Amino acid sequence: MRSRYGPAMSRSADAGLSRPPVTADDLDHAVQLAVAVLREAPPAAWEGKAGSLEWDCWETVEHLSDDLFAYAAQLGPRTPPLDGEVPFVWESRRPGGPANAIHANRKAGPAGLLQVLEASGALLVAMVRTTPPQTRAHHVFGVSDPEGFAAMGIVETLVHTHDLAQGLDLIWSPPTDLCSRVLARLFPDAPSSTDTWSTLLWATGRAELPGHPRLTTWRWDGTPGHRLRRLRRREEVRSGLAGQAAAEIGRPPQRMHFSLRMRAHSLRSAARTSRWRALALRQRR
User: Fold this and answer.
1) 236 shares its domain with 143
2) Neighbouring residues of 126: CB distance < 8 A, sequence distance ≥ 6
């Protein structure tokens, strides 16, 4: 969901180290599931609104296709941009419509529209599969890596197919493991004891959860390594609290919180300085 789409929030970091990665195969699976469900829609239904969105169902598929294309494009240059989007022209075909670089020929009908979606998804799948994992590229919610863009593409596909299923009167319930992986990758602070699909809808402002009101603003965290950073901060705080007594006897634990390590260092330095001064005084005498 790029910057022009409006606001976007941020699973427990305890699962961060052990979670399986989000892959190009996951993305391909999500797109193929979406296309298969959308093929069941009656031809006359595509002019209706897509769930709570202001766009009709045709426009929403164009928007989703455009998302997938745009993420692929961000990974495309040999040196991807870190401070902005690859400068395609995005434009709306009506006031209030989605601003896209990708538009489907309406004469091709719903079958052609879904071909556009499948082709755009395939572009991102190919880029995620072939781009070195250390590559970084701009996204408005933080510079990300190929896995991050795969996860973003999956979230876009899952939640916009939800919007479309509401408008087209279709049944859509994506796999639990797919939802779980993208929650861990992009929404590490989301509730972890709730149904994963319901949680993903909540995290993207589309549903309520027990004890959690519906979000009016939200965003994901696509930056690489955020799970490790959260875990390390937690470990440092815990070890720092446990090691405060050890610091007082001059043996701070190796992973103590930085501020406590500095305090212990200062205490030891002051003690050494006092011993040196005492020794200097005795030598003068």
Assistant:
1) no
2) 24, 72
| Judgement on whether residues 51 and 139 belong to the same structural domain of the protein | yes
Separation of alpha carbons 16 and 230, rounded Å = 9
The predicted model gives 21-33 an average pLDDT of 98
Q: What percent of the chain has pLDDT over 70?
A: 73
Residues 262 and 164 in one domain: no
Per-range mean pLDDT, top range of 29-43, 206-220, 238-252: 29-43
Q: CATH code at 46?
A: 1.20.120.450
Structural domain including 184 reads 3-224
Q: How confident is the model at residue 176 (pLDDT cuts 50, 70, 90)?
A: very high
Q: Which residues of 169-208 are buried (b: 16+ CB within 10 A; e: fewer)?
A: ebebebeeebbbbbbbbbbbebbbebebbbbbbbbbbbbe
246 & 271 share domain: yes
CB 139 within 8 A of CB 149: yes
> Has this prediction a pTM greater than 0.70?
yes
Identify the bridge partners of residue 212 per DSSP, sorted by sequence position.
Answer: 209
